[in-house]
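Replying to the earlier thread about multi-chain prediction with a worked example.

Input:
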Amino acid sequence: MTKFVYKFTEGNADMRNLLGGKGANLAEMTRIGLPVPPGIIVTTEACLAFYQQGEQFPDGLEDQIRQGIQYLEQTMGKKFGDVSDPLLVSVRSGAPISMPGMMDTILNLGLTDKSVQGLADKTGNERFAYDCYRRFIQMFGDVAMKIPGEKFEQALTDLKAAKGVKLDTDLTAEDLKELVQQFKAIYQEHVGDSFPEDPYDQLLAAVHAVFASWNNERAKVYRRLNKIPDDLGTAVNIQTMVFGNMGQTSGTGVAFTRNPATGENVLYGEYLINAQGEDVVAGIRTPEPIAHLKDEFPAVYDEFHRVAELLEDHYRDLQDIEFTVQEGKLYILQTRSGKRTAAAAVKVAVDMVREGKISREEALLRIDPAQLVQLMHRRIDPEAQVEVLATGLPASPGAATGKVVFSADEAEVRGNNGEAVILVRTETTPDDIHGLVPARGVLTSRGGMTSHAAVVARGMGKPAVCGCEAIKIDAENECFTVDNITVKKDDIITIDGATGRVMLGAVPMIEPELTGDFETILAWADEIRTLGVRANADTPRDATQARNFGATGIGLCRTEHMFMEPSRLPIVQEMILAGTPEGRREFLAKLLPIQEEDFYGILKAMAGYPVTIRLLDPPLHEFLPKIEDLLVEITELRVTKKDPARLSQLQELLRKVRALAEFNPMLGHRGCRLGVTFPDVYEMQAQAIFNAVSRLVKEGVEVYPEIMIPLVGIPAELELMREVVVRVAEETKQREKVDFEYKVGTMIELPRACLVADKIAAHADFFSFGTNDLTQTTFGFSRDDAEGKFLPTYIDQKILKENPFAVLDQEGMGQLIALAVQKGRSANSELHIGICGEHGGDPESIDFCHRTGFDYVSCSPFRVPVARLAAARAELKNRKK
Amino acid sequence: MTKFVYKFTEGNADMRNLLGGKGANLAEMTRIGLPVPPGIIVTTEACLAFYQQGEQFPDGLEDQIRQGIQYLEQTMGKKFGDVSDPLLVSVRSGAPISMPGMMDTILNLGLTDKSVQGLADKTGNERFAYDCYRRFIQMFGDVAMKIPGEKFEQALTDLKAAKGVKLDTDLTAEDLKELVQQFKAIYQEHVGDSFPEDPYDQLLAAVHAVFASWNNERAKVYRRLNKIPDDLGTAVNIQTMVFGNMGQTSGTGVAFTRNPATGENVLYGEYLINAQGEDVVAGIRTPEPIAHLKDEFPAVYDEFHRVAELLEDHYRDLQDIEFTVQEGKLYILQTRSGKRTAAAAVKVAVDMVREGKISREEALLRIDPAQLVQLMHRRIDPEAQVEVLATGLPASPGAATGKVVFSADEAEVRGNNGEAVILVRTETTPDDIHGLVPARGVLTSRGGMTSHAAVVARGMGKPAVCGCEAIKIDAENECFTVDNITVKKDDIITIDGATGRVMLGAVPMIEPELTGDFETILAWADEIRTLGVRANADTPRDATQARNFGATGIGLCRTEHMFMEPSRLPIVQEMILAGTPEGRREFLAKLLPIQEEDFYGILKAMAGYPVTIRLLDPPLHEFLPKIEDLLVEITELRVTKKDPARLSQLQELLRKVRALAEFNPMLGHRGCRLGVTFPDVYEMQAQAIFNAVSRLVKEGVEVYPEIMIPLVGIPAELELMREVVVRVAEETKQREKVDFEYKVGTMIELPRACLVADKIAAHADFFSFGTNDLTQTTFGFSRDDAEGKFLPTYIDQKILKENPFAVLDQEGMGQLIALAVQKGRSANSELHIGICGEHGGDPESIDFCHRTGFDYVSCSPFRVPVARLAAARAELKNRKK
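Result:
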């Protein structure tokens, strides 16, 4: 027979998988002699068995629970359901991983019409007994029987009104007896049966309810959001009741050993006199700050303070403690590691190292790197009450408030005049860049996480909400609507790029803080980590920012954004439309000095560090006018018969643009395929790079250019393109009479590249995994389409645990990456390996990169601190194993 | 010192890699005692060394050649360049793999101003000697020195005119002496140096020219087209000359041991009296059929007949023999396996088995399966003179002649009236199906091998040339132009879907023949092969055809073409635009009985065999009107302000169509992603299948439906969709009170599916590799874009050896497939594995499938015989190893 029920005295802190976090902690506290009311724990195994048997208790569970109650009866010298001195218990859930607020609790279980009288007699406090009873009926009805809580609340409110009192505590014993009758009637009405008078019936129903609550919607959502597996199950803690509501020398509270918002080392929390725990959480009465306890009950405060220190020392972490005082005696009901803000996490970790309580390594493992992003951007004050108008994709973190404008031109003029504007567009194009730069943020109704707006905004560290399909933009009338709300030009909105929320009006903000402790933590991380951290940056400004955040190189400098600047776009368009090498020559010659300045700037900003420059990657038609726009204009001209010259010009342009159009641009004529078919374009870019390098070398600046060929899937592609780059480099050395180092490598972003990585590595100095495109091709997901169309359903239905564009798919794509690393290194032991997809900034993915033998990760500048910490944690976690 | 030169007496037939095919055969024939003029062979290794050293002779080669000539001098009792009795030699190329017409030959080498007199004296025939000399100068000048051949031809023509004679043979010795002087002057003029008077200089230059010809353009193109590696090199055969031009008892000819066009077992060939070999090939004089030799020189004929039989018996295959008769004596100059038509290949193989010359297995290995396609379609008579107007993609094999029409409606009306029409469109859409059906063929200027036109045409077995970008269609004026040629409506054109050629007017055709020998060969193949062969078919008609061609099942029945029929499309469109499950219900109910009839028909046509039905795969917007068309109409209505009701209707439609539009449809909301988000659509299809199955079972028809879920990349996708199918099947069994078997499986067409194949296999009865999509995602190539844009460059530049959409990429994608097979079977040993991509009809790819442990291949009906033979050959080849 499986042992499904443990006494607190039989457990310890290591048994959290079996006993749940709360149960294991209660057992541990019992073990170290803290004043914990005795109890028993129904194991998570019982919960799993319950689900395996179609929501039925497994054999033996009921008997073991009865035996457990008998043990409590013996220990406490009370009887369950006793008419004179009844044993009362609380029933609480407790999963192996803390899920606060997710699971339901029942207190005062064991009260019946008979035993309530026993409780009244024993305590000499009839009012207290009936208060317990009515609370119990209310919680049992709500939690176990799903009776809407407001039914009971309404009855209570009505009664107080009828009696002319304001506070619950003003109600008399007689009032509460009346309330019990009303509550029972509510129960009978909803359940269709009378309230159970056998305490074992109550207990078994309560255990059933806790088990069932493991799969309530809130719990499922919480697990999904927090990546907690569904097959852990919950334990049930059945604990002897203590009462914070036995009068003015009783009370209950919750406290943190340190301030969980700031990390300051003072007790932080609150308590209520003459109340049970639920009253604190429910916020019905306003609790007192814990400091007041010192004045009201100094002995209790001192005892609690001692216990709090003991618990923090014992668990070596900030603790979140629930306690109850019953007639002057302190009981500890729960302790757990306290949730904290990023700022607090950093400060607590650094302080505890300074206090000698934990090591630097432990400090690093205590801070969730993903949380650090909180510290890197302006953000909405979490305390603020906000009303969300619509929600789009969280395309680029940070929050911004400003006046709505609908054109890039207007955003440019007004933004440059110092006005705070938010650019709102259906989607953005390269033509909008001049408006994006001075805007505070951007909101689009179409496009995914890699849409133009999203990519550009992330590159600029500018807040963006994209693909917000709920807003209907009427550009002509300069307004947008959400349902029946219309937002006009100059109306103020706030966007939160971290959550995708769009709000009307201004909202309180918190500015980013880079405290000394933050710097300290990152310095410790740098000492430990073996993975390099670079940044993805396309401009000298971004590069400088990345460097300030601790990046030691650029892992991806995209050259196409340089092509898209409005002043250059016409030259680029003419080059593309030229169609022949001869026709292109003139425009390439114009672009050469411009690109040279681009590279000069970024290489100089990153002096002393490597800069990986990716040659032109997107399909050429991305730089051209849209077919749809041309069609509309052509049709207008055709119908109105105005300006036939322009019509025929546009028709010719349409023909050329059509010839370059593609069915699936993502899989089309782009990347090194451009380099193979238009080697002159790559040659120009290589020349621009090496011209810049030569100038910098002559100026005494240390530069390490790394030329990256995109979208290689066939070894000969890299071989050919490498020849072009090497030839230009060597010619430049000769012509300019300088010497410099450089590397030539490739992005690994196609499944085939992984499969033939050994043959590719023969021509590569480095591999940089382009995991955005590799995810697209491995899954066959077009990111722009998937995130708007079916990925949300996939996550909801748990077909996928998480968005593979955010968290690297280790199960599938990870196999390809590991294969490529192994094959690449087998052919070229000097091969330098990194990642420059967005996964390079995701902690889980960084852990994978570390384990797979990468040399570095590269991510957006604002993610660099996250990556530094995550890299150190990866080293520590894998060192352990 | 490497041995670079072999005597004929030192070699044999097994040495073809070293001595080339021709050299090895000459050595072999020498070895078995045939009358072969003595000679020496410069090895392929010498050629490779020549290229390794930058087109320089390797050390020792010249000495070895000189020693070889000394050996010939001793053997023949003549001296090289001798003034009285000179040794003359021919110099011919000879690669390990026959490359007819690709390499250049020089005859009569050794003649100089001095030795020509010796030849004249020795033969007593001055005219003959100078004829040899002038031929030698001509060939040497042409082949070794690249002097344009027409220069010499012109001088010869001019001389004949001046002398008033018609035939070369009418020229006198004196005339020829004059011609020699003129030829030398031409030589001097072009080369800038006088004609070499040292025979060794001549010989070394000739060897150099042969080596160089290995890399001439013709040779490179031939190798590419015939998949011959570039690193084999060519040998050089230096052989004592015999003379077919020594008078009326001399001659030269080429003959096959059997008719290479029909396979008939009679000597087939031709000869010329008083001529050298080049005269036959060049077609300057019309040669006599070989049968005439019997009358003119019965002894020679008998001798040749004996040798021909001996050679065929020796090599056990149809031989292509070159011979020369010098003053009544027969010499054999070359023998090789004879090229033959598919029909001949089949007949010769079957006959030789009947004659006991070869085994059935050898017979199967003698026939190139790819060639069999020739027998399956109407084709252009290879003898016909055709003028090619333009060339597009060979999208669907077969040839068709008809009048050009530019609209599907017109094609429908006129085609159904029995007119032969070719539908010419920029591209086709589902709306054009009604015009495609009665058209003889289709020609499009856009789209690749998987464009709508191509796929539909292949499915129908109808000729198609697609993506023929050279033709500019002006639909409005009903004409198209190619350069300056305009083709109007009703003009007759011919298209050749096997080569992509478009020709003006009608062209002679050959009808497909399925002879008894063909059947015999396929029956032998069936006995040997272990791979099953199924067909891809969407209609009962296609299924029946496939069955007639020997398919034992349907490997892919696409259901989307059923949706695209014009009568159904409006229902499908309404269903899609409904947007909600409730809205869809009505239209799904309408589609259900229609789909049921579809499945009833195809299952019945394939009674007794499995039919794999793929549930809906393409993105929904493929069924909707095009955004561009809507935009044009909306703009027109907007500008003209006519019909505002229709305008707002169209604007609403545009909004819905836009909402469903995708950036990369290939990677978008399609396949099982539709099934997950719109389970009601898959449910309807499953219901239609099982309704049809139930009816057939009740009628006593044996059916084996296999339901295939497309585009699975995540195990849970298949798990969910399988649940839907199984539920519908079981409900149907209960409701209809019937029992039937069915399988549920998936297409493996995404890299991730291969990587997690073990987990997918847990929910699959079968895997069918969709190698079209798998190629797209593995390479990151959109086929529709790649084939028009960069793949041709990739093949030309040898970045890829072949189009991966035609021949399965074993190097890269093959790894994924092998992994998936291994993982799939490890998790589910009963897993049935097939392929339904187009590679399923390609012999090389079929060999791969055989080796990788597939159970079957599936291909278009017309490829079924190819696949049956290829499967047998795969078994035989791999049995050997």
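The longest strand of chain A covers residues 329-337.

Feel free to reuse this layout for your own posts.
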